[in-house]
UniProtKB/TrEMBL annotation:
Belongs to the glycosyl hydrolase 1 family. Transmembrane segments: none annotated. It comes from Breznakia pachnodae. This is 6-phospho-beta-glucosidase. It comes from the Bacteria. Its EC number is 3.2.1.86. InterPro entries: GH, GH_1_N_CS, Glyco_hydro_1. PROSITE patterns: GLYCOSYL_HYDROL_F1_2 (PS00653). Keywords: Glycosidase, Hydrolase. One of its GO terms (molecular function) is 6-phospho-beta-glucosidase activity. Coiled coil: none annotated. It is an enzyme of class 3 (hydrolase).
Amino acid sequence: MSFPKNFLWGGATAANQYEGGYLEGGKGLSTSDVLTAGSHTQMRQITWKNEATGETGKTPMAFMGGDIKIPEGAIPAVIDGEYYPSHIATDFYHHYKEDIALFAEQGYKCFRLSINWGRLYPNGDESEPNENGVKFYHDVFDECAKYGIEPLVTISHYETPINLTINYGGWIDRKLIGFYENFCRTLFTEYKGKVKYWMTFNEINVIEMGPFMGGGLLKGDKQNVAQAAFHQLVASSRVVQMAKEIDPSMMIGMMVGYGVGYAGTCNPKDQLALLEGNHMSHFFTDVQVRGYYPNYKLKEYEREGVTLDIKDGDLEDLRKGTVSFIAFSYYSTNVVTLDESFDHGDGNFSFGAKNPYLKTNAWGWSIDPAGLRIALNTLYDRYQIPLWVVENGIGYADVVEADGSIHDDYRIDYMKKHIEAMDDAINLDGVDLMGYTPWGCIDLVSAGTGEMKKRYGMIYVDRDDVGNGSLKRSKKDSFYWYKKVIASNGEDLSEEVSKDE
């Protein structure tokens, strides 16, 4: 039993949590740039400034939805004394050569990163791109090519240009389809021959749970979220077709946050609740792979009075612009039950009862390697197209020892068991799996809480929750372990770690 010879081992990041370079090189403000550091309650605050009066303030924002209210005439702005994690993050903007060299040392076959929309189009609605931004990503992709690393690029990853939010309402406005097409046309033409693998939206389903983060929405009601999601789906289908025209060798995939649910009991009501949860999990993949809205979603909209504004050609675009692969994030599983005797918890949008058979990390995320095998089988059985695990990992408050070493055996154990689950899915179940890019291969800011202490990386970055630190990079034990795994193409998963250079 072994992984395919062309299996793409690597790691995953996102510009809004990793890149930094706030406003450098002509970059514009994005939605992530106006969010202050979060907390365990998963509340953020959006800042605003009234240009007429000079007044500034902060508006609490429900991270999981709700409406954002910004005073008339105000625009989001930074406020002195507040900490904004995305502004520096862990500073890939100034450390990209060093970081890519470290990824190459581990033996990466691919590196997942995202393009910061506002770096290429500062306001999102310009007709021509910012050349400094275009050059930056040319430099990044050239550095990857130097080491034979294939970029896997997320086109939009939780960083809608703030101008598109304030002046258009985010993806509620159909004009964003055209702005996004213009953005993508620049990407596909500029980086033709340098980037083969693309994903149109990160965790596109998150717009239903976090509409500001997922779609730059100020209004999070069902009608507006449904219309915004439709616009994103149409936009995705159009750029899939565009990419095929510009460079037929490109592979365009979709990316979804995927969680496996278990019914808490054999009560038929629990089973029906699980069925409804599975519909929510599969809606976006159904549209982007099959090319049409499933009946269960249309009936849901009918019940709730949601009416989509569909223009001529939209449904045809959905049909024609289906994706070549499904990429997904997998962290944990949840339990669906109406039985109130179960303990309840949450972790990264996965709300449900706690599973008594599983351990959790300090943030309440269940650790379930078998769930990854179930996820792979469920998706492959349903769609029969290649899959890619593009996020998977565990956050821990790593400790730096006196000698500078970082012993993260818990991360090694987590990754080992999940890689074994992928191995079983490939070799026992026949799943077509393209690659594995664990989340936060290098430490970055948590999207869920704005923290640094919830670390995912195999490379430690010296930075804390309030922005202190040298940004020095250090190798954790997991760095050396994953290097061995890649070198053996997944055959050597022994937990012994050798730091011989």
